[in-house]
Design brief:
Elements: H1 26-45, H2 49-63
Helix pairs in contact: 1-2
Protein name: Haloacid dehalogenase
């Protein structure tokens, strides 16, 4: 990380530590990223679940193969 970045922990509601099977199994991982995140995105932006899922999946695909993805 470049620069001096302060984390405002009081403003953060969720921190997810996804350790691929150590804490969370694949079922939960798939549910979280493929169902729950699109549901919340749809609610926030006034979209249908399908529209939100398509947008979220496109965002995921942009990150595949990068450090953000792993």
């Amino acid at each position: 990380m470049k620069g001096n970045h302060k984390i405002f922990w009081d403003d953060i509601e969720w921190v997810l530590l996804d350790l691929d099977g150590t804490l969370l199994d694949k079922y939960f991982d798939d549910y979280f990223w493929e169902t729950l995140v699109p549901e919340k995105y749809a609610q926030k932006y006034g979209l249908s679940f399908q529209e939100a899922k398509e947008k979220v999946m496109a965002l995921y695909q942009r990150e595949e193969g990068t450090l953000n993805w792993t």
